[in-house]
Design brief:
Blueprint lengths: L5 H5 L6 E14 L3 E7 L7 E6 L7 H6 L5 E10 L7 E12 L14 H5 L2 H4 L3 H23 L3 E2 L5 E2 L11 E2 L26 E3 L4 H11 L1 E9 L12 E10 L3 H22 L1 H11 L3 H10 L3 E4 H11 L15 H11 L4 E7 L15 E9 L3 E8 L4 H10 L8 H8 L5 E7 H9 L20
Parallel strand pairs: 3-5, 6-10, 12-13
Antiparallel strand pairs: 1-2, 1-4, 2-3, 4-5, 7-9, 8-9, 10-11, 11-16, 13-14, 14-15, 15-16
This protein binds one RNA strand of 76 nucleotides through strand 1, strand 2, helix 3, strand 15 and strand 16.
Length: about 475
RNA sequence: UCCCCUGUAGCUCAGUCGGUAGAGCGGGUGGCUGUUAACCACUAGGUCGGCAGUUCGAGUCUGUCCGGGGGAGCCA
């Protein structure tokens, strides 16, 4: 069907000309002589007002009754300056065709719905203002992630979804199997015999592409992963999904300082891209979802990212006199309330906290000479807290091996990882960014389930 | 996983002390009007999440199960 995007009509110069548009009816208002239809086709947050002059006999009474909210229609007519106050242009209809009717039990009405209700109809919620805006911003962010890395010569590496490795021990994993779950084959000792499973071993869905992408960094230089990730944690919060998308760059010949610099450039690139290319949608979020949103993003954009070692951060928290629910103690991880306090009250802007105690961080992080801390970094931003977590990786074979043994890891499973340090080891660093949390942060949406098309959470997988 | 809140019309919600179901929007009919969440009048629409219990009587109280939300933990 040859038709024009509503977005291009709304942003046109307003000179009178003929156009064909296709979309879904958001609402209809009727007067004695004229019918107004607000049509949306997803290309823009805004609707195009279709004006139907009753005297022109374009539609019958019977057809008028079928022009209900939710119906899909094709309209041909003249684009003209609008006589009303709310729009710049409108379409004076010459013909209207109903493509698909929407009976009166169409669940979406023109008034506000709760996000909880819309979560139950993920296939239809995309036809609302908010979810359309989220989808467009999400798309822009994904594209700008690729742009950022591609401009800098990073290779996009497709790390596997199915893995045999429990990367960094980051919580429970989903198992992938073709074994008969009613009667799995068992070995003599009664254990499930994974030799008979599809891959001949126990296999799982990835919780991170980092360990595999490190292989590519140690051979290709600058690389990144961007893909789906899975966690079987029983987390029921507004910030957790069981299936989510993650971005993980990894750089060869790069220490923690370089890592921090890249993270700052990265965040600023993403924010400026969205603010520049999604103005309409961002204005919508600022007005209806989170007041002051744009201002808060612009502040991050214009602020230098302050570097604050963990030990100094703890001192700042201790001397603040703030009554925290959890007392800050050297050796314990920063609580969400501590992170927010550091970025919102102490630094009053984005901050990179580095060099955390080694016992609260993953085995692969590079050990500092003090033997107490590792070269880890978390980037914290106001309103959210942690947005990026990363580290310089341990590149010393002996130190890494010792740390892995100390943590009782299965050494046989990680010989390939140790090989990177055995043969031509290099300093390298990287970080991870939860893509959906980024979308949440940028849009101001309260619940992460509303920034991914089809959310998967414990006990919930609609569609 | 723990704590708290919640489930009533297609949607958003009200429902007092336990006494037998209400509003707005959406739909229908009529009126009015280049309207902007249009407006006015009338009208249709209900297994009050499921099961069990207390009671003469349960939307309301109790138990339990299921769903949803918020906070915490785990984390991205």
């Amino acid at each position: 069907m040859n038709h024009t995007a509503i977005k291009s009509i709304l942003t046109g110069d307003g000179t009178e000309h003929s156009q064909t548009v296709c979309g879904w009816i958001r609402t209809k208002r009727e007067s004695k002589n004229v019918i107004f239809i607000e049509l949306n086709d997803g290309t823009s947050l805004n609707t195009l007002q279709i004006v139907i002059d009753k005297d022109a006999q374009i539609i019958s009474d019977e057809m008028n009754h079928r022009l209900l909210t939710g119906a899909s229609v094709k309209a041909v007519g003249l684009v003209k300056p609008c006589q009303g106050a709310s729009q710049s242009v409108e379409l004076q209809a010459q013909s209207i065709d109903i493509i698909g009717e929407a009976p009166t039990d169409y669940p979406l009405q023109k008034k506000r719905h709760t996000f909880e209700f819309l979560r139950e109809i993920p296939h239809l919620r995309i036809r609302t203002n908010t979810f359309g805006a989220v989808a467009r911003v999400r798309n822009t962010l994904a594209q700008s992630i690729h742009d950022f890395f591609q401009q800098r010569g990073f290779l996009w590496i497709h790390t596997p979804i199915i893995t045999g490795n429990d990367a960094e021990g980051a919580g429970s994993m989903f198992q992938v199997t073709t074994l008969n779950m009613d009667a799995p084959p068992r070995s003599g000792s009664g254990q499930i015999d994974y030799n008979q499973d599809f891959f001949g071993k126990k296999s799982l869905l990835t919780v991170s592409g980092q360990l595999q992408v490190e292989n590519f960094a140690c051979g290709m230089g600058h690389v990144y992963t961007f893909g789906p990730t899975f966690r079987a944690e029983n987390s029921n919060t507004a910030r957790h999904l069981s299936e989510y998308w993650m971005v993980e760059p990894e750089m060869a010949f790069c220490n923690l300082d370089g890592n921090r610099e890249l993270a700052e450039l990265f965040i600023k690139h993403l924010l400026s891209t969205v603010l520049n290319t999604c103005q309409e949608d961002m204005d919508f979020f600022d007005k209806w979802i989170s007041n002051g949103l744009i201002d808060s993003l612009q502040k991050v954009l214009s602020s230098p990212f302050v570097h604050l070692p963990y030990t100094d951060a703890i001192s700042e928290l201790e001397k603040s006199g703030e009554d925290f629910e959890y007392k800050p103690v050297w050796g314990s991880d920063l609580q969400a309330e501590h992170e927010r306090f550091l970025t919102e009250k102490v630094v009053k802007g984005p901050v990179a906290v580095t060099d955390y105690p080694k016992d609260i961080k993953a085995f692969y992080m590079k050990q500092n000479d003090d033997n107490k801390t590792v070269r880890a970094m978390d980037i914290l931003v106001p309103r959210l807290g942690e947005i990026i977590g990363g580290s310089q990786r341990e590149d010393n074979f002996d130190k890494l091996k010792a740390r892995m043994q100390e943590m009782n890891m299965d050494m046989d499973e990680y010989q390939w990882y140790l090989d990177l340090r055995r043969y031509g080891t290099i300093p390298h660093s990287g970080f991870g960014l939860g893509f959906d949390r980024l979308v949440q942060y940028v849009t101001g949406m309260q619940n992460i389930r509303d920034v991914i098309p089809f959310p998967r959470t414990p006990k919930s997988m609609i569609l």
